[in-house]
Amino acid sequence: MGEKLNYFKKMKGTTKSPPAISLLEIFWSWIGAMAGIAPVVYINYNLLEGTDFVMVIGSFGASAVLIYGAIKSPLAQPRNLIGGHVLSAVIGVACFKLFHANLWLAGSLAVATSIAVMHATKTLHPPGGATALIAVIGSQKIHNLGYLYAIIPAGSGALIMLIVALIINNIPKNRRYPEFWF
Length: 182
What we know:
The protein is mostly helical. The protein has eight helices and no strands. Helix 4 (78-99) runs antiparallel to helix 8 (151-168) and helix 5 runs antiparallel to helix 6.
């Protein structure tokens, strides 16, 4: 009985909620996210319209939260952003190609394998799991890209967002990005 109670006690947590974020920090996070997502979406809808390419994927929204709103997090650093998206994209495409007849298997293998590979390569970036899953459950346009999906949109979109993060996150005196590169 004691083991069962200890199991549930672990779910109480160990610390208090983090402190509130200043309005200035919120402002710079908003500016960064707006400036970072805008060129990716603009390219997608204005420069790639009518082509078989896509530039924007849903996982970039989660990346924006990290690289503009949680800039000190190890998960938000350049190595993690680029490596997490590119490696996960390759894994997602491979899983789709191998197991497209069983999308439940392809999707779960893509996410699980992406997490394992990101851990092993020190590139853990939670949106990478979504990038892998998008490669499996995405539209025909995504599937038609094949392994090019790792370059455009995953790699190039993440690179554009990184460049914006380097510029915007270093404007205020109290913000600095990145914490590390490799």
